[in-house]
């Protein structure tokens, strides 16, 4: 075995998702009204550009197979989910297995003044599910997540406990929570505490 | 505890999501070097403190990260309107600061 | 039933099978499930529950709810003790321990009453007069007053309970679950609104719960049950019993305290004891009801004088008879209900004294038909009795209510019930500053007008007839739903089947005249809790106080924990009469949150202990933790402060870490530095406008240090910016300044320079940063990085390169904060720990040493590198810091803060300037923050010359070093100055250059 190959093997990178250490601590409580599961192995891209920039919209459509969503909404394709963050800002979540080099693909396709930033390690993506989700969200956030106001496909950036989060409604009793990496330990502990009576289970992929 | 309409998110949001950013429509002088100390000092330090309608800038810091302006009554706290930077709605607002 | 209980054989909303034991002041007693502490005390024949604040007079239970001024108790002991509760609001539970909070040494023997000391000490205006006296006296008074005045005792230990906090949104919030509230809530629900209905009591129903057994009363109770059942069955309705809306805030925001466990016991292990609901409502309906007013007459504070509606509540709801023989004094028809129910219960009525010249309404006629002695034009002018009521004095009263028309006659009784009419509960609706307005017809203040604010219904709006209450509440319920966006505004719920006796007008009577003048008659109490009498209010007016707010402060009227719920209107009316003006012109005082006290625990909710504030962790946090790092809080981040090895003190650890960096290699977790990705054709122009220096010529692969100023010219952040590619930059900010800097950049992009094409994205959390620093840094890095030439020639100081480190794509910046050869290795945070551990392995041979923030601070101070926020404080210019070299005076654009550097004040030569300090005694380490004077031989206050900003012991130099800001300091090199310390010593030090180590900066260029 050559030295560089040996090195390569030694350096097989070990990935630790943001929730890595919290997961081990909160597996399988007796009852769980809320289940948190972290999704890793995806690429997160912060996209900036003018919504009037048609080539920009077109290349996102071409590469990610999805339309840039309007205010407060998200959109999905088989390749990616895109969330509205601001009037010229979106977050794209791409499954690494389906599209390995989205940055290069987008950079190649897009013309004009845009910004594409890889923030894959910056956030923790959580699916939050269960009968206790509505109450958990009410405890954590000042935003109104009632189904009448915030149905499937809606997303919003708001406060979450004393941190912030991007929240998306996936379906009934099913939400996505995207939290900055450095806050995730705090947020997870906060959620476990808020679910003290009903139970909270944390898992990951 | 105010409830503020963000013209970018296009909905009412809670005050916790915002940070106040002082009086609105304070334009930076085009050529600071040509100003006297007194004129520069006016731009830097002097702000209105009216009783009644007032225009102020807010930052949707926990939301879309956009700055925008709000016309608020400092007595009743009623917010007459929220509008994007760059707009300068004429009308009811008598106390308005001149744009430049 | 035990004979010892003053309990009716049947009736009441009680579980008669469930006896509940409790103690009051150590005496064992029992009550029934469904009792409040107050009803149980009355059932046990307890008459005196408190001693009064100033005079030590005996006081009994007056009311039955949050208005109760006297029956203030403390529950439990130790950590779980709760002070300042009203016995009328405490639900009885097994084992409850209650103590009275006033009376010393006990309620029966009260020294203050015996000596009468406070009467002399505390005339009206006591507080004001005392504050006008020498201030030192106040301390003496205060100690004595607090000991004797019965404010309860705060718990000494941490609260053992859990609390909870939740945010709520609804279309219509209905406050008060009485008939009006129930009707409004049901109507809004039917229109499709999301509704929250909140009520203080254990069950919804309000005044309906006090009704008796008549046919009409039964019909009303049935309506209540049906309405409640409909609400309970609705999906979008939240019913909150045992919950108090304690504060109404701007834009229809309401704070509600829900008592989840208080009725079960003092602690509730595992379950939240109370929950704070933070409610944002589109529409608010105030169905807060009305409070019965007591009549003010001589000795009206004797135990055994109660509100008519409260007595009715005690007999109907709790089946308690608080006396044997009742004398009722009323200004209205409504109170006759009590007399009828009292008689129904088989008890004796001495007399109904009706102050009106005639009483021909339905209820007074019924009372006469039943043989009750009704005397019109008559008032109870005085209560008699020693420990409690044993009789009353009746006298004929003039139709105007201001004088008596004949002599007084005694009547025997042991209970006096009074009703001076009703005051709408307007507290909440005035919390945002809207003054209530006087309504002559309702004889009370009603809520003032609100723009988009709450609407009052029922008796809260001065509508006292139950049928009219419900009708109005239905209409307003539908209207509120419409304003919230539901329904068409037409009420759809059925008209209730309520038979309400028509009532004749009440009389406005607030102070019952006596045969003697107010100042000579026995005390006529207006505010029981703070012992404010009618005479005191008249005296205040005579002393020149005319504003109701001034009189309130002068007499302390309404300042108690009951917020003067019983006394305020009577007090205002007495003042108005004394001043010879109308009540409307006199106005009322304002009410502020909280309506009833709120525990701190509920306000904090679950955010206590390690959830008090967010803790931010880097990707290597667990590694540091496993190594036993001591932590420093930097903003919300946890950073390793130092890494002690077995038995080391902090000083020893820091010295070892410093020397490792200087002599071999150290490794620092620098992930917390703020990082902002900047892209766009105008990025360089933008950077040049916000930094003092220029970025127009910064080439890809190069880094540059910059200072950021606010427009006032003062330094607020610094950091290194790298050019990543064409129109692409990475800005580093200070750890604490990251969010502020991003907001600052966006501010200028969005508001002033929208024409500049540039985007900012925070990447702080994306990157984990391991800084290798020390002469062996290159050798360590070379072992895990093979695709980049790390030599000084190929990879110079202030360069950066893309590379693969330990198999992970990385950005390596050759920048240094220690003055040593340094490489900052940035990798995606998901691989942060992996790369860190590989670097540790690679460095083993060189004894690589992890170092913390303290060693970093020492190392940079040795080099004279500033830390923004430590060596600067928001009042320092670049020149003050000796950093004029970084200010691009010839840049074409007037960068942010530039003009301010030319202001006369920033050009002063005697501004505080950054210098070094060497103590004369080399082992003496000055405390940071120490003040600097020229000579200690001067009188205090000395002339300050500046202060120490950074100070450490430098292991490399073997002596202490310090940075300081000193007036005109750069021209004073070599001068000796002094730091007078708190321990009385004056430490001498010599002003020197700021760079203590490697002044030519050779070590970072190797
Ligand atoms: Zn927004």
Task: Please tell me about this protein's structure.
- The complex is a heterotrimer of chains A (205), B (100) and C (1006).
- With 205 residues, chain A is of the alpha+beta class.
- Helices cover 24% and strands 33% of the residues of chain A.
- Chain A contains 6 helices and 11 strands.
- The longest helix of chain A has 11 residues, at 54-64.
- Chain B has a single domain, classed as 2-Layer Sandwich (Folate-binding fold), CATH 3.30.2270.10.
- Chain B has a 4-stranded antiparallel sheet with strand order 3-4-5-6, with no helix packed on it. A two-stranded antiparallel ribbon of chain B has the order 1-2.
- The longest helix of chain B has 9 residues, at 37-45.
- In chain B, 29% of the residues are buried.
- Chain C has 7 domains: 3-123 and 134-149, Ubiquitin-like (UB roll) (Roll); 163-290 and 424-483, FAD/NAD(P)-binding domain; 308-420, FAD/NAD(P)-binding domain, CATH 3.50.50; 516-596, Arc Repressor Mutant, subunit A (Orthogonal Bundle); 629-671 and 766-859, Gyrase A, domain 2, CATH 3.30.1360; 674-762, Aminomethyltransferase beta-barrel domains (Alpha-Beta Plaits, 2-Layer Sandwich); 909-1006, Elongation Factor Tu (Ef-tu), domain 3 (Beta Barrel).
- In chain C, the strands form 12 sheets. In chain C, strands 8, 9, 10, 11, 12, 13 and 26 form a 7-stranded mixed sheet that branches.
- Classes of the chains: A alpha+beta (205), B mainly beta (100), C alpha+beta (1006).
- Chains in contact: A-B, A-C, B-C.
- Chains A and C meet through helix 1, strand 6, helix 5 and helix 6 of A and strand 8, strand 13, strand 36 and helix 22 of C.
- Bound molecules: zinc ion.
- Zinc ion binds next to loops of chain B.
- Residues 6, 8-9, 60, 63-64, 66 of chain B line the site of zinc ion (ZN).
Blueprint of the fold:
The complex is a heterotrimer of chains A (205), B (100) and C (1006).
Chain A: H1 3-10, H2 20-23, E1 34-39, E2 42-48, H3 54-64, E3 74-76, E4 80-86, E5 89-95, H4 102-109, E6 115-118, E7 123-129, H5 133-140, E8 155-160, E9 163-171, E10 174-180, H6 184-194, E11 200-204
Parallel strand pairs in A: 1-11
Antiparallel strand pairs in A: 1-7, 2-5, 2-6, 3-4, 4-5, 7-10, 8-9, 9-10
Helix pairs in contact in A: 3-4
Chain B: E1 3-6, E2 11-14, E3 19-23, H1 37-45, E4 53-59, E5 67-73, E6 79-84
Antiparallel strand pairs in B: 1-2, 3-4, 4-5, 5-6
Chain C: E1 15-24, E2 27-33, H1 37-43, E3 50-51, E4 58-59, E5 72-75, E6 82-86, E7 96-100, H2 111-115, H3 117-121, H4 126-132, H5 135-149, E8 162-175, H6 179-190, E9 195-198, H7 215-232, E10 237-240, E11 243-249, E12 253-259, E13 272-286, E14 290-292, E15 305-307, H8 308-317, E16 325-330, H9 336-344, E17 348-354, H10 362-369, E18 374-376, E19 378-384, E20 391-396, E21 409-412, E22 415-419, E23 422-424, E24 437-439, E25 444-446, E26 455-456, H11 466-483, E27 525-527, E28 532-533, H12 534-542, H13 548-555, H14 568-578, H15 583-586, H16 600-604, H17 621-626, E29 630-634, E30 637-642, H18 650-663, E31 666-669, E32 674-679, H19 683-690, E33 703-709, E34 715-725, E35 728-733, H20 738-752, E36 759-762, E37 767-773, H21 777-782, E38 800-805, E39 808-813, E40 822-828, H22 832-843, E41 849-850, H23 853-862, E42 912-919, E43 931-933, E44 944-954, E45 959-967, E46 976-980, E47 986-992
Parallel strand pairs in C: 1-7, 8-9, 8-13, 9-10, 13-26, 15-22, 16-17, 16-22, 17-18, 31-41
Antiparallel strand pairs in C: 1-2, 3-4, 5-6, 5-7, 11-12, 12-13, 14-23, 19-20, 20-21, 24-25, 27-28, 29-30, 31-37, 32-35, 32-36, 33-34, 34-35, 37-40, 38-39, 39-40, 42-45, 42-47, 43-44, 44-45, 46-47
Bound molecules: zinc ion.
């Amino acid at each position: 075995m050559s030295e560089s190959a040996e090195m390569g093997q030694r350096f097989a990178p070990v990935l630790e998702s943001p929730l890595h250490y919290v997961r081990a601590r909160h597996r399988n409580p007796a009852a769980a009204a809320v289940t948190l599961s972290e999704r890793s192995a995806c690429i997160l891209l912060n996209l900036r550009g003018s919504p009037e920039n048609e080539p920009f919209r077109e290349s996102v459509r071409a590469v990610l197979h999805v339309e840039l969503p309007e205010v407060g909404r998200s959109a999905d394709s088989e390749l990616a989910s895109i969330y509205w963050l601001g009037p010229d800002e979106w977050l794209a979540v791409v499954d690494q297995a389906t599209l390995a080099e989205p940055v290069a693909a987008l950079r190649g396709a897009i013309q004009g003044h845009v910004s594409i930033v890889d923030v894959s390690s910056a956030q923790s993506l959580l699916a939050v599910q269960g009968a206790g989700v509505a109450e958990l969200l009410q405890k954590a956030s000042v935003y109104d997540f009632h189904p009448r106001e915030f149905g499937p496909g809606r997303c919003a950036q708001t406060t979450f406990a004393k941190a912030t989060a991007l929240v998306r409604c996936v379906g009934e009793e099913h939400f996505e929570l995207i939290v900055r990496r450095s806050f995730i330990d705090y947020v997870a502990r906060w959620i476990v505490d808020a679910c003290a009576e009903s139970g909270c289970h944390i898992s990951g992929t | 505890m105010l409830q503020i309409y963000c013209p970018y998110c296009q909905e009412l949001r809670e005050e916790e999501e915002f940070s106040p950013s002082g009086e609105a429509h304070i334009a930076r002088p085009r050529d600071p070097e040509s100003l006297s100390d007194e004129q520069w000092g006016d731009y830097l330090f002097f702000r209105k403190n009216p009783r009644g309608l007032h225009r102020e800038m807010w930052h949707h810091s926990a939301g879309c990260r956009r700055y925008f302006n709000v016309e608020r009554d400092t007595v009743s706290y009623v917010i007459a309107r929220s509008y994007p930077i760059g707009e300068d709605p004429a009308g009811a607002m008598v106390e308005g600061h001149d744009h430049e | 039933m035990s004979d010892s209980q003053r309990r009716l054989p049947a009736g009441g909303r009680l579980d008669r099978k469930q006896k509940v034991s409790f103690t009051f002041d150590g005496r064992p007693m029992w009550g029934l499930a469904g009792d409040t502490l107050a009803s149980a005390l009355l059932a046990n024949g307890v008459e005196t529950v408190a001693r009064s604040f100033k005079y030590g007079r005996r006081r009994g239970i007056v009311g039955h709810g949050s208005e109760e001024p006297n029956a203030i108790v403390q529950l439990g002991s130790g950590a779980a003790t709760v002070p300042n509760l009203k016995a009328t609001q405490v639900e009885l539970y097994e084992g409850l321990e209650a103590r009275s909070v006033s009376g010393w040494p006990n309620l029966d023997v009260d020294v203050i009453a015996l000596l009468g000391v406070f009467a002399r000490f505390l005339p009206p205006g006591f507080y004001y007069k005392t504050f006008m006296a020498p201030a030192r006296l106040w301390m003496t008074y205060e100690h004595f007053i607090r000991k004797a005045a019965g404010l309860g005792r705060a718990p000494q230990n941490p609260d053992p309970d859990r609390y909870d906090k939740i945010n709520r949104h609804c279309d219509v919030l209905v406050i008060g679950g009485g008939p009006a509230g129930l009707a409004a809530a049901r109507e809004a629900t039917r229109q499709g609104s999301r509704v929250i209905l909140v009520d203080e009591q254990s069950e919804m129903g309000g005044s309906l719960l006090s009704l008796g057994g008549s046919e009409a009363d039964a019909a009303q109770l049935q309506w209540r049950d049906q309405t409640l059942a409909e609400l309970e069955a609705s999906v979008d309705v939240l019913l909150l019993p045992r919950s108090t809306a304690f504060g109404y805030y701007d834009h229809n925001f309401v704070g509600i305290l829900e008592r989840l466990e208080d009725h079960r016991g003092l602690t509730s292990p595992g379950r939240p004891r109370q929950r704070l609901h933070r409610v944002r409502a589109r529409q608010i309906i105030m169905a807060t009801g009305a409070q019965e007013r007591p009549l003010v007459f001589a000795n009206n504070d004797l135990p055994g004088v109660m509100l008519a509606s409260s007595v009715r509540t005690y007999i109907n709801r709790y089946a308690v008879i608080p006396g044997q023989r009742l004398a009722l004094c009323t200004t209205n028809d409504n109170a006759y209900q009590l007399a009828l129910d009292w008689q129904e219960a088989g008890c004796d009525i001495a007399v109904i004294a009706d102050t009106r010249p005639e009483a021909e309404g339905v209820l007074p006629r019924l009372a006469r038909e039943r043989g009750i002695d009704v005397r019109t034009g008559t008032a109870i002018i005085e209560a008699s009795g020693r420990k409690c009521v044993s009789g009353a004095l009746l006298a004929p009263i003039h139709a105007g209510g201001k004088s008596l028309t004949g002599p007084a006659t005694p009547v025997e009784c042991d209970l006096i019930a009074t009703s001076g009419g009703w005051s709408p509960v307007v507290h909440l609706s005035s919390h945002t500053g809207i003054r209530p307005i006087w309504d002559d017809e309702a004889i009370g203040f009603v809520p003032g007008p609100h723009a988009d604010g709450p609407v009052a219904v029922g008796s809260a709006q001065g509508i006292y007839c139950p049928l009219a209450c419900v009708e109005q509440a239905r209409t307003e319920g539908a209207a509120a739903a419409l304003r919230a966006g539901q329904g068409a505004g037409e009420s759809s719920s059925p008209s209730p089947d309520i038979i309400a006796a028509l009532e004749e007008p009440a009389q406005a009577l607030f102070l019952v005249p006596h045969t003697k003048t107010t100042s000579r008659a026995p005390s006529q109490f207006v505010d029981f809790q703070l012992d404010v009498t009618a005479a005191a209010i008249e005296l205040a007016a005579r002393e020149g106080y005319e504003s109701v707010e001034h009189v309130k402060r002068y007499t302390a009227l309404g300042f108690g924990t009951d917020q003067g719920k019983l006394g305020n209107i009577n007090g205002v009316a007495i003042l108005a009469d004394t001043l010879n003006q109308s009540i409307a012109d006199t106005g009322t005082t304002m009410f502020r949150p909280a309506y009833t006290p709120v525990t701190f625990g509920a306000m904090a909710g679950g955010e206590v202990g390690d959830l008090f504030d967010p803790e931010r962790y880097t990707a290597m946090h667990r590694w540091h933790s496993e190594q036993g790092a001591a932590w420093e809080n930097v903003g919300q981040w946890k950073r390793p402060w130092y890494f002690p090895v077995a038995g080391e003190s902090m000083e020893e650890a820091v010295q070892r870490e410093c020397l490792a960096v200087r002599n071999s290699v150290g490794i620092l977790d620098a992930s917390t530095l703020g990082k902002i990705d900047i892209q766009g054709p105008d990025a360089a122009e933008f950077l040049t406008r916000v930094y003092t220096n220029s970025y127009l010529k910064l080439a890809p692969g190069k880094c540059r240090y910059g200072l950021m100023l606010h427009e006032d010219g003062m330094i607020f952040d610094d950091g290194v910016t790298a050019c990543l590619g064409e129109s692409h930059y990475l800005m580093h900010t200070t750890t604490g300044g990251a969010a502020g800097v991003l907001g600052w950049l966006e501010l200028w992009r969005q508001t002033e320079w929208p024409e500049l094409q540039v985007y900012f994205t925070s990447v702080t959390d994306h990157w984990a940063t391991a800084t290798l620093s020390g002469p062996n840094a290159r050798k360590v890095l070379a072992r895990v990085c093979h695709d980049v030439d790390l030599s000084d020639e190929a990879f110079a100081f202030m360069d950066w390169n893309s590379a693969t480190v330990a198999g992970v794509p990385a950005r390596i910046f050759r920048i240094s904060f220690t003055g040593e050869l340094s490489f900052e290795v940035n990798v995606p945070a998901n691989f942060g720990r992996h790369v860190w551990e590989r670097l540790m392995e690679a460095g083993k041979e060189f004894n690589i040493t992890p170092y913390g923030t303290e060693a970093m601070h020492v190392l940079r101070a040795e080099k004279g590198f500033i830390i923004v926020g430590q060596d600067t404080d928001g009042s320092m210019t670049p020149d003050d810091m000796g950093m004029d070299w970084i200010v691009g005076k010839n840049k074409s654009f007037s960068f942010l803060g530039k003009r301010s550097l030319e202001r006369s004040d920033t050009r002063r030569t005697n501004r505080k300037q950054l210098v070094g300090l060497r103590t004369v005694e080399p082992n003496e380490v000055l405390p940071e923050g120490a003040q600097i004077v020229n000579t200690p031989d001067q009188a205090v206050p000395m002339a300050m010359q500046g202060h120490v900003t950074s100070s450490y012991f430098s292991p490399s130099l073997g002596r202490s070093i310090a940075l300081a800001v000193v007036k005109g300091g750069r021209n004073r090199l070599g001068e000796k100055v002094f730091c007078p310390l708190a321990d009385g010593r004056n430490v001498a030090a010599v002003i020197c250059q700021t760079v203590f180590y490697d002044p030519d900066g050779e070590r970072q260029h190797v």
